Amino acid sequence: MKILGTGLSGLVGSRVTALLSPDFTFENLSLETGVDITDLKSISVRFEQSDAPWVFHMAAYTDVQGAEKDHDTAWKVNVLATENIANNCRKLGKKLLYIDTDYAFDGKKEFYMEDDAPNPLGWYAKTKTEGAKRVLALGGLGLVIRISNPYRANPVGKKDFVHKMMERLESGQSVTGASDQLFVPTFIDDIAEALKVLIKTNASGIYHVVCAPALSPYEAGLVIADIFGYDKNLVQKGTFAQMFAGRAPIPQYAALKNDKITSLGIHMHSFAEGLEEVKKQEV
Ligand SMILES: NC(=O)c1ccc[n+]([C@@H]2O[C@H](COP(=O)([O-])OP(=O)(O)OC[C@H]3O[C@@H](n4cnc5c(N)ncnc54)[C@H](OP(=O)(O)O)[C@@H]3O)[C@@H](O)[C@H]2O)c1
């Protein structure tokens, strides 16, 4: 089956397409392939020319700090371009996958299910939530997965948070993680597995594709040190208030639940299990 995609050369897209290429044929519309998704007309032409029944829309303005300063660009890429893609999918009857973020929530609840109301704090998150609304308005044609801090073996382009921490620990530098914060990092290989099943079942609506149990970034640092054999004394405890002072606001307790996706028989790796896979793949 053919899949028309955007952002397939990014951190998540490049791994998902590598893992799914035996099952699907991908066509990537991205800056790298000469297509700017904010060029609404040329996107519409490319959509009309394609007979792919599914669209993986993974391109986004992903600079969380930059979005606070450049509201217009983030809105144009994450909302207006997504709205145009959704309109094309509605017109042509294509199914649309969109990747949303755990930052959709305000982090004040103990945990979050798919039907909890979003209340994004920062501008990046607000634009991503608006984009998701356009996709969900497609009804049966719209599929939104929420992911958190995606990581993988051998990241390309930008480094994931795991490899940023590993780089510092490797060179004997300390890393600090908040111990009063919760997150649910996503092993990117699990996204590929989840998408295989979601496509097969013609799924629509929202799914949380995240790990369980939730952990703090401080705990994540300790797990990384443990699995990759770094000195655990280099992992320092910080507070959420300290670590995010003067930065784009993000949810403190982003403990999204993954029961809906695991009930489909998909194994979502815990953070430690995901890291063991990364270690095996990087040998
Ligand atoms: N990384 C995270 O922590 C995280 C967390 C939650 C959700 N997400 C979501 O997951 C998706 C994938 O994220 P990622 O981290 O893999 O992204 P990424 O590595 O930052 O890559 C972004 C992709 O978007 C493309 N792109 C950006 N602006 C474009 C434009 N105007 N026209 C065409 N293509 C454009 C880039 O194309 P070029 O490579 O050609 O420049 C790149 O392929 C995004 O929707 C993001 O919002 C990410």
TrEMBL record:
Keyword Oxidoreductase annotated: yes
GO MF entry, a single one: dTDP-4-dehydrorhamnose reductase activity
Top-rank EC class of the record's enzyme: oxidoreductase
Family matches, as SUPFAM superfamilies: NAD(P)-binding Rossmann-fold domains
RmlD-like substrate binding domain span: 1-280
Keyword Oxidoreductase: yes
Family the UniProt entry places it in: Belongs to the dTDP-4-dehydrorhamnose reductase family.
Function: Catalyzes the reduction of dTDP-6-deoxy-L-lyxo-4-hexulose to yield dTDP-L-rhamnose.
Official protein name in the record: dTDP-4-dehydrorhamnose reductase
Species: Candidatus Gottesmanbacteria bacterium RIFOXYB1_FULL_47_11
